[in-house]
């Protein structure tokens, strides 16, 4: 029988004295559970940890707020603790927020992709803990997409944003604890940083190997199927196609009213471990809300073999070439990028990324293969790896 994964929060409660941490500010949301299925903040309070304040990332404490939507401060109904939103009036905690706190705990499940914003909330928390000389303890969690890596790397000078502030690959293969160690070193933050590791996880393991029930991490990551498809179809946010938001399988199906009889032969020749089938759906939110969308449903047949960034870009190239009168690039407004401009650049971390799609197929494919090469990332991150 497989060993059940133990999260950092489980490790903390089993092996550490709550009094050691003093007054705690906890960065978390409703997606953060113990391995036994109890919400982290409830379990920590019951174990005697003195949490005095909560901080919430994008999607709010519920992890159900709309994508990119402003999240206000509030009070947590389950604990009566004040909630400071880090996706509302500000993206980072203020000095006043941290004044009466001895330790900041961070326990937010991530999904292993650079453009998933919880990582960048952590980056701001790191900087503010450095500035205010606060201890930061990260309750680490496994990377559900394993330790496999795929680029592009981020052009930090021209493509830094809240969906990618610093130069790491799209699929970085790390845990948040490992990335925090890297950032603390490379950005010379000198934070009093402690990582409470998760147990029984190895880099070759995907979520399906954890022996645990799936917990949605945000409104559109509803299942393991959706999470696996997300790094393939996330780039459709920068287009006028539906990425399946508002349907029963966001990101695992895509479409538009005009996406009729698409020929995917070339796409399937290039991609591996992905099956597709025709589908139709009516989104309840987002693009084409209330309209019948025709499209395709994607199924990842072997997570160890698929290359989602390559697949996603080839899928857009395929659609753009076959539907030139209908396909268009489109802004994607969010709290962190109100104008929504250059969204593809920011997702990919590549300046003027749309120009890639003007290239003939062979040149396009060659360029994308070069971009998705992660070059020296493994060497760079190696000193900071924990697993």
What's the CATH architecture of the largest domain?
A: 3-Layer(aba) Sandwich
Structural class by SSE content: alpha/beta
Largest sheet descriptor: 7 strands, mixed
Uncertain regions spanning at least 5 consecutive residues: none
Q: Which descriptor suits the 3D outline? A: globular
Q: Multimeric state of these chains?
A: single chain
Please give the order of strands in the largest beta sheet: 3-4-2-1-5-6-7
Separation, N- and C-terminal Cα atoms? 21 Å
Q: What fraction of residues sit in β-strands?
A: 5-15%
**CATH homologous superfamily label of the largest domain:** Uncharacterised protein PF07075, DUF1343
How does this model look, in words?
The chain is built from twelve helices and ten strands. A hairpin with a 6-residue loop joins strand 3 (74-75) and strand 4. The strands form two sheets. It has a seven-stranded mixed sheet with strand order 3-4-2-1-5-6-7, with helices on both faces. Strands 8-10-9 form a three-stranded antiparallel sheet. The chain is globular and about 65 Å long. It folds into two domains: 8-218 and 379-384, Uncharacterised protein PF07075, DUF1343 (Rossmann fold, 3-Layer(aba) Sandwich); 224-371, Alpha-Beta Complex (Aspartate Aminotransferase, domain 1), CATH 3.90.1150. With 387 residues, the protein is an alpha/beta fold. The chain has helices spanning 8-15, 40-46, 95-98, 118-131, 156-159, 176-186, 224-233, 265-270, 308-322, 343-348, 361-371, 377-381, and strands spanning 23-28, 50-56, 74-75, 82-85, 103-107, 135-139, 193-196, 253-256, 274-281, 293-300. Helix 4 crosses helix 6 and helix 9 runs antiparallel to helix 11 (361-371). The model has no long low-confidence stretch (mean pLDDT 97).
């Amino acid at each position: 029988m497989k060993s059940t994964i133990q999260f950092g929060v489980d490790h903390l409660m089993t092996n550490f004295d709550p009094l050691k941490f003093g007054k705690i500010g906890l960065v978390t949301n409703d997606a953060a559970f113990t391995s036994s299925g109890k919400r982290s903040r409830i379990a920590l309070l019951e174990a005697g940890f003195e949490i005095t304040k909560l901080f919430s990332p994008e999607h709010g404490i519920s992890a159900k707020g709309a994508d990119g939507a402003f999240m206000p401060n509030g009070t947590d109904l389950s604990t009566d603790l004040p909630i400071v939103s880090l996706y509302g009036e500000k993206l980072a905690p203020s000095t006043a927020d941290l004044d009466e706190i001895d330790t900041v705990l961070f326990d937010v499940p991530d999904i292993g992709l650079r453009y998933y914003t919880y990582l960048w909330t952590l980056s701001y928390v790191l900087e503010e803990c450095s500035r205010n000389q606060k201890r930061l303890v990260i309750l680490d969690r496994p990377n559900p997409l394993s330790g496999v890596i795929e680029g592009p790397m981020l052009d930090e000078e021209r493509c830094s944003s809240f969906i990618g502030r610093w130069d790491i690959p799209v699929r970085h293969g790390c845990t948040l604890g490992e990335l925090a160690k890297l950032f603390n070193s490379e950005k010379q933050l000198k934070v009093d940083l402690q990582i409470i590791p998760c147990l029984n996880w190895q880099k070759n393991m995907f979520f399906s190997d954890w022996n645990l029930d799936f917990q949605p991490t945000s409104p559109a990551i509803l299942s393991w199927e959706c999470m696996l498809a997300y790094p393939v179809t996330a780039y459709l946010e920068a287009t006028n196609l539906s990425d399946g938001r508002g349907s029963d399988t966001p990101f695992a199906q895509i479409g538009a009213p005009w996406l009729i009889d698409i020929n995917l032969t070339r796409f399937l020749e290039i991609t591996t471990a992905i099956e597709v089938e025709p589908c139709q759906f009516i989104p309840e939110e987002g693009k084409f809300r209330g309209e019948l969308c025709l499209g395709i449903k994607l199924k990842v047949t072997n997570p160890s073999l698929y290359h989602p960034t390559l697949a996603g870009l080839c899928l857009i190239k395929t659609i753009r070439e076959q539907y030139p009168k209908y396909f268009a690039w489109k802004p994607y407004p969010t709290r962190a990028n109100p104008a929504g401009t250059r969204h593809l650049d920011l997702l990919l971390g590549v300046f003027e990324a749309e120009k890639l799609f003007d290239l003939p197929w062979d040149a396009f494919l060659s360029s994308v293969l070069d971009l998705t090469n992660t070059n020296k990332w493994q060497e760079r991150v190696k000193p900071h790896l924990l697993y």
